């Protein structure tokens, strides 16, 4: 049976993801192409938003791995390599595709988190990239922080804060 904690975490993920979707839909084409230079990698707003959508998939995978009692073995270097590959592959990504991914993968992540029981939220697994043991709930919060952090970057870049 899902827990109130899980439903609240899922609602927070869904809310911050909706903020990202609304921002993506509401900006101009020029803003979509603007470079987010404060992240140091020259990705455009569009690429960063698309990266967030892809991140939903990784957040869910890490959550499922932790639920199964296995370690999340991805390292910081691997994450950085995947991010660089994503930026190179999706350098001219479209807004429509990004919105669909944000909606679909965000809903899947939120729905999965909402199903968790208190016992499942309290399970732990080692996250190699973080260098520590984490609860399943903490893995869900990583998904939320990923969206929120990049949303903040985009807002700063576009002077929307």
Structure report:
With 161 residues, the protein is mainly alpha-helical. The chain has one domain (4-157): dinb family like domain (Four Helix Bundle (Hemerythrin (Met), subunit A)), CATH 1.20.120. The chain is built from seven helices and two strands. It has helices at residues 4-26, 29-33, 45-67, 76-89, 95-114, 118-122, 136-157, and strands at 124-127, 132-135. Strands 1-2 form a two-stranded antiparallel sheet. A hairpin with a 4-residue loop joins strand 1 (124-127) and strand 2.
List keywords for this structure.
single chain; 161 residues; mainly alpha; Four Helix Bundle (Hemerythrin (Met), subunit A); two-stranded antiparallel ribbon; 70% helix; 5% strand
Uncertain segments: none
What percent of residues adopt helix (DSSP H or I)? 55-70%
Instruction: List SSEs in N-to-C order.
Output: HHHHHHEEH
Strand order of the largest sheet: 1-2
Task: Average the pLDDT over all residues and give the rounded result.
Answer: 93
Number of helices: 7
Q: Which CATH class?
A: Mainly Alpha
End-to-end Cα distance, whole Å, is 39 Å
Q: CATH superfamily assignment?
A: dinb family like domain
Q: What is the number of E strands?
A: 2
Number of domains: 1
Query: Strand percentage, roughly?
Result: under 5%
Shape: globular
CATH topology: Four Helix Bundle (Hemerythrin (Met), subunit A)
The profile of the biggest β sheet is: 2 strands, antiparallel
Radius of gyration computed on alpha carbons: 16 Å
CATH architecture: Up-down Bundle
SS-based class: mainly alpha
